Amino acid sequence: MLDAFGFKLPTEIIGAPGAARDLADICRRFGEKALFVYPVQLADLAGAYLNLLKDAGVALVPFEQAEPEPTIDYIDGAAKKLKGQGIDVVIGFGGGSAMDMAKALAIALTQKEGIWMYANLSNRPPLPLEGAVLPVITVPTTSGTGSEVTPYAVLTKPDTQQKGTIQEPAIFPRVAVIDAELMVGMPKGLTASTGLDAFAHALEATINVSKQAPMAELFGKEAMKLVFANLKAATDQPGKLEYRQNMALAAALAGMAISHRGTTTAHAIAEPLGALTHIPHGLGVTISTIPVLRHTIEGAPEGMAKLWREVCFGEKLENEALEATAFVGKVEALITAVGMNKTVQTIIGTDECQGLHERLIDSIMKFKFRPLKQHPVEFDANSLRPIVRDIIWGPK
Ligand SMILES: [Fe+2]
Predict the structure, then answer these.
(1) Tens digit of pLDDT for each residue in 128-148?
(2) Domains of the chain: residue spans and CATH
(3) What does the DSSP assignment read for 39-104?
(4) How far is the CA of 380 from the centre of ligand 1 (A)?
(5) pLDDT tens-digit profile of 234-260?
(6) What would the mean pLDDT of 60-70 be, rounded to a whole number?
(7) Ligand 1 centre distance from Cα of residue 280 (Å)
(8) Cα gap 11→152, rounded to integer Å
(9) Ion ligand 1: residue ranges with CB closer than 5 A
């Protein structure tokens, strides 16, 4: 059968160093009053852009986000305080969490029910939106999440330690202002883990077996090439704009890839891992990727063998298993080169890992069923056990 193809992206992308200095004009396209969401850690950088917007006459409601990965209670509480303030547009300025928070507030400020009702869960569909939501502008300060161009917002439900995702075309950002100048201050570890999250998006969207999406594959492969060529340099020379710009492009391409064909097993593991341990998303994905790929080679080497040839331009080897192994070796070498060859144990300590193995397996099977089904090998609780052991403790 021939491959069907299609692509839809309602987000205008402005990807130029210095582009965020035009934020006031972009903002005014959508109204007079902007809610400006930024993380507390970026107060100084955000303050400079808040002043710029204020000087240009934009009415502002600043919102300093205190929770790094916002819970549904935090979002609903914020929406309660912000409702009725005449907000026309929401700006998400920061990493994935700030952009996701902006998207969640765009819904929460216009809808009746609590935000969790709009998450798309494996055991129930989301509540349909009533009427329009507020337009969202994204201004990423990291290169990884891709949230600047996706219709996704990840939420945490603290009582069940569950992560859920809103998947709503209505929250596709209207404009993504991708300004590499905002990324030069990113610390080395964050540069590495967010860049590897972008790589995982590209990889997982490319090997995802759920549906035909040749354009997503095209973007995914290009994003992987960019990460291979630029991530190490971006961590070694943080002030060099060229590497930041290339990583910003990689993250956006990978974000577009997952907007059209979602993530698979490393994300299915990293999200509950984050909910249980508070390991940040990019780091959780990074440490899950190699164990997942290693356990994929035997059952389905063809996708990774193809990437060996088409992304790494590797020589033809005797069989697909060898080519897939060579590809995984390249990914592992990159992870090691940027100092991210870690395990859960090396990040949170041995004591915190006690009992985690089974709790994590339970959580993966309970909450993240869909991405697991999209992986080239279908894992169940039993076949996940050695993978999760490797993620927590390292290979035997
Ligand atoms: Fe991710």
Answers:
(1) 999 999 999 999 999 999 999
(2) 12-183 (3.40.50.1970), 188-393 (1.20.1090.10)
(3) EGGGHHHHHHHHHHHHHTT-EEEEEEE--SS-BHHHHHHHHHHHTTS---EEEEEESHHHHHHHHH
(4) 22
(5) 999 999 999 999 999 999 999 999 999
(6) 93
(7) 10
(8) 13
(9) 197
